[in-house]
Every structure is written in structure tokens, then in C-alpha cells.
Amino acid sequence: MTVFIRFFIMSLLAVNFLAAVLRTETIPAASFSPVTYNIVIDAGHGGVDGGAVSLSGVQESHINLSVALKLEDTLALFGIAPQMLRREDISLHSSDADTIREKKRSDLHNRTAMIDQIQDPILISIHQNTFPQPQYHGAQVFYAATPLSQEIGQRAQQDLSCHLDPSNQRQAKKIPETIYLLNHISCPAILVECGFLSNPAEEKLLLRDDYQRKIAATLAGTILTFFTPITTLQETLS
Ligand SMILES: [Zn+2]
């Protein structure tokens, strides 16, 4: 074997080796980023604070909890275990709170403190809307003034309108200053008003198990679009 042929073979081996190293280093490591946020689900109100009341007398807090638990179930299918601020019909106030007003205030302070203790949280707060006039309907999403909240809120609004009621032209809005929780957290946060309990047709839908599941599945989809790296999906398919 001449020196030239030996050099040629060594060069080929070196190129192959380098290509193999590049393959193993770039494809799996660079394209997969694990979920680093904790999804926190807040079923609004509860216990002494029933929230709004539907036309047929159902308290908002019950619907909020039902949707929140369905969202937890749906996320579990994708390996996401959210933190639930409540799983029962309870208010989260401290034992020293006396009047209903004090209990409501204490409940909100405690929810804020619970979120503060979670590492890298993203808050999804579930509520139902009401209005004195019955004609108003459609999901409405509010976002906090914290990083990423507006992006998540706009996406959630778009997804809910698309999947629940394509005639819903609402845009995601910044949360009013009067809403305590979303103005006292520092993490990304949205508040979802799933629909209007004051609209006869929408109230019927919001009380239905299958419609609540649809809301939960839609919100799970919104969350997954933010936390499933697209490159990983593409590689799985190719
Ligand atoms: Zn509410």
C-alpha cells in the first residue's frame, strides 16, 4: 500500500468519524428542550365564595372546579402534572379570617402566596362571566402584565374562539387592576372567562360535561403549543 492510498483511507475514516460526532452532538442535544415551567391551575372562587350565579342558580365556583379538574386530566395524558390550587369546593382563607369579606381577601392572599412558592409557575385561572344583559356570550381571555402572558393569552383566545364559537370576535385583554390575583403575581398568567352564565344558550353549554371537556382540551392544546418544542415533533415524524 502506497503512502498516498494509506493517507486517502485515513482521511475518509476521519471525515466519517467527524460526521458521526456531529450527528450525535447536534440532533438530540440541540433540538430537545425539556419543559421548565410548572403549570398552575386556579379554579376561581370556592367554598363561601361561590362567585357569579348562573341563570338556573349554579354557582360559578362549581363550574370553574369542574373545568379545572378536566384540564388536569387532559394535561396528564401528555405527561404534564399541573399544580392545582384547589381540588374541592373550598375557600383557601386562613383560619383567622372572620367575615365573608375577610375570607375572600385572605383566600386571594393565600392563592398568591401558594403561586409564589412554586418554581417557574405559569398560571391559568378559570372563571365564568356574567353581565346584566343576557345577549353577551363567548369566551374572554385576560392576561397579566408579566412576561409571556400576552402571548399565551392571545393564543388561548384564538384557540377558544376557533374551537368553541367561531363567531366570537373577542380579543385577549389586559387584566383590569381590580382583579387581585393577576396583579399580584410575577409569573406569566392568564385568566379565562369560559363564557357567560347570563346568556341562556351559553349557560346550558357551560353546565354540560362534554362542553367543559372541550374547553379543557382547547386550553391543554394552548399550553402544549407553548411547551412542546416543534423541532422534536418534526424529528419524530421524519
Ligand atoms: Zn369569577
List the helices and strands and how they pair.
Layout: H1 3-31, E1 38-43, H2 60-76, E2 83-84, H3 100-116, E3 121-129, E4 140-143, H4 149-164, E5 173-174, E6 189-196, H5 200-206, H6 209-227, H7 230-237
Short summary:
The protein is of the alpha/beta class.
Shape: globular
Q: What is the number of domains?
A: 1
Secondary-structure element series: HEHEHEEHEEHHH
* Small molecules in complex: zinc ion
CATH class term: Alpha Beta
Helix count, per DSSP? 7
Order of neighbouring strands in the sheet with most strands: 2-1-3-6-4-5
Detailed description of the structure:
The protein has 238 residues and is an alpha/beta fold. The protein is built from 7 helices and 6 strands. Strands 2-1-3-6-4-5 form a 6-stranded mixed beta sheet, sandwiched between helices. α4 links the parallel β4 (140-143) and β5 (173-174). α2 crosses α6 and α4 packs antiparallel against α6 (209-227). It is globular, with a radius of gyration of 24 Å. The chain binds zinc ion. The site of zinc ion (ZN) has 6 residues, from loops.
